[in-house]
Specification:
Strand content of chain A: 5-15%
Distance between the termini of chain A: 23 Å
Largest sheet of chain A: 6 strands, parallel
Number of strands of chain A: 6
Number of helices of chain A: 8
Shape of chain A: globular
Mean pLDDT of chain A: 96
Oligomer: homotetramer
Helix content of chain A: 25-40%
Amino acid sequence: MNTTGYDPNITALLVIDPYNDFISEGGKLWDRLKGVAEANDCIPHMMAVLAAARNARLRVFYALHRRYRPGDYETWKYIAPVQKAAWSRKTFEHGTWGGEIRREFVPQPGDVVAREHWCSSGFANTDLDLLLKRHGIQRLIVIGLIAHTCVEATIRFAAELGYDVTMVKDATADYSEEAMQAALDINIPNYASAVVTTSAVVESINPVSK
Amino acid sequence: MNTTGYDPNITALLVIDPYNDFISEGGKLWDRLKGVAEANDCIPHMMAVLAAARNARLRVFYALHRRYRPGDYETWKYIAPVQKAAWSRKTFEHGTWGGEIRREFVPQPGDVVAREHWCSSGFANTDLDLLLKRHGIQRLIVIGLIAHTCVEATIRFAAELGYDVTMVKDATADYSEEAMQAALDINIPNYASAVVTTSAVVESINPVSK
Amino acid sequence: MNTTGYDPNITALLVIDPYNDFISEGGKLWDRLKGVAEANDCIPHMMAVLAAARNARLRVFYALHRRYRPGDYETWKYIAPVQKAAWSRKTFEHGTWGGEIRREFVPQPGDVVAREHWCSSGFANTDLDLLLKRHGIQRLIVIGLIAHTCVEATIRFAAELGYDVTMVKDATADYSEEAMQAALDINIPNYASAVVTTSAVVESINPVSK
Amino acid sequence: MNTTGYDPNITALLVIDPYNDFISEGGKLWDRLKGVAEANDCIPHMMAVLAAARNARLRVFYALHRRYRPGDYETWKYIAPVQKAAWSRKTFEHGTWGGEIRREFVPQPGDVVAREHWCSSGFANTDLDLLLKRHGIQRLIVIGLIAHTCVEATIRFAAELGYDVTMVKDATADYSEEAMQAALDINIPNYASAVVTTSAVVESINPVSK
């Protein structure tokens, strides 16, 4: 499989959960992510990949976690621990700054924003698969947060559903190096056909930019 | 299978697309639906089933069609005819009265509103299946619009996904008697384990009301 | 949308349930299908479309109903009427002639046979969507049985999932003209972007054959 | 949530990939799994949970990986690395001993065996979700192989789809302690509402056995 060179007719950039609560100073989870994020230059790398994708006219898709709203979980008979945590923290609370997308990553006209996901996978219980198909997309370049939850989940689902995936390993972050390695070194390489750096993927997307 | 007697722990009422554009005087499609809807006493029947369900503490779920927003379809490579029609008519336009739920059917606290669906099935590309499971629901009583598109599609998907379905045949409507019969007489009886009248289902839900 | 001219890189022929029980003399349901099937020249048309697809190197996919096996339904808490009928008739019984594919339609090397479906849609609870994606397929030409159940269900799901669909209206059959019309005239035109004759689709697939 | 005490009406045991190739002496992957499997007493624990479940009349479901067959992948446009590995090793080859279930875990009458899965999740592209619903199952107790691929994937999907999950942490195994910990300590606790030992789950299933 040719992983250098991404045909814009069938390739999209998928940006996962670039919320203020995750990646902005003052966000509810920034203090837990900051160490790995800064060591990885996560935010500049996410910006670089996004810019390269826009420059190459790759369509940009967003997979966004459910913004917390009162009443979301009170009536559920069963709830997964990751959802219980989101509930107790009111992560990405709807109508608050923490539930807004960090300024540099706000969707632009022509971008496609899938329905919010309730758990970790951007595909589960959303219209992401439909919207990718309706745009003829077969390959995904993935950036965003958090490596071992939403990013890994979305990549696992993408592979199960039949998409070809490239993961940009320095355009993500996690709560700890251990969790980051679990995602990037142990799990994602089974499902993504390429796990690459920002500079490599930018070069592949925009070969003439050299 | 016992279709009289609905255990509220595992049964929900599912209300499909009770938008002003469909069932209110002045709605974009009311003129096309009016004949069958009035002959069927569709709206009073929908109100009666909803009241009976609330009285019996059956949880109420809503399956709602995508409210039209500018930019919805311009970039799609493929589009189904039913979506092309929704696009050209701007059906259920977001932010307009036509895209609001008819007054008597507005969701109440404790009701569960699934994400909007893009085509006809309330299950496809939405969180309806998840939210039903998270509330322990295994059986659905279905009312709403339109019989041969969203209602039939949602019932077909419900059966494919493993739910037991009761269709209330006089709490729906359609563009023509022929389309109504295609749904109620030819197709839905293959997928719904019961196709009943409002009076029968109300009696089953609230047996003591006799 | 260009419906004449099917790019073999993204288009497949989907053949639905060409079992002996449906379309061979002596099959369990042939007597019920015979009238419409013969009036429609269903079998010669299915053969013509299949031959044209193979000639044009369109990949051929099969969506096949569950072959009945003892124990299939005994433990189910809920069962749809269409499944109860399959159970009582032992339709497409595994290991019998009725559960074999009619001779002219037996899959060839390179064809892709999806897992059997339990209800009517070739997509529900199967790997059909995955296998289409893994072959880069975005458009489907559909032939097979029965118009108002498995064919309509599969087309409805295809549209919901994002595929572009062409239905070949004289390469199918049904239990009655009324059921056939419900499928071909009322429902399928909402979901298939083209509903065409065998001669039209053969001409589109093999334009040089003119 | 009450994790001790499992109502057999809504709880099932899910056994994942107990193939000879994984957990029998001589299996293709046994040498890679042996170290962790033996340190964890994986096989005796799997047997103990299975026996307890049968004794308590919990229904037993099987999620089984695609048995390799020639022609499986040759025509795929895209393939995930985990599938490429299965292809090159011919893991669980159909018709061979390695593709058979280890003797102690062979399905019994009344057990439910879902269609084979192509990648890692027992839910993706299979009928597992349908068959669970058709039996009224809402909660899963999970045992089997391999922790960080099929087990973790199936648990992630189960949570996304709305099931309550209990993972039996000493009834699984992996290629390395590091991969095992990535699954059991980092990822699965986000999605399974309980991660317990065999002795704890056996006691919960059969409280009177004390």
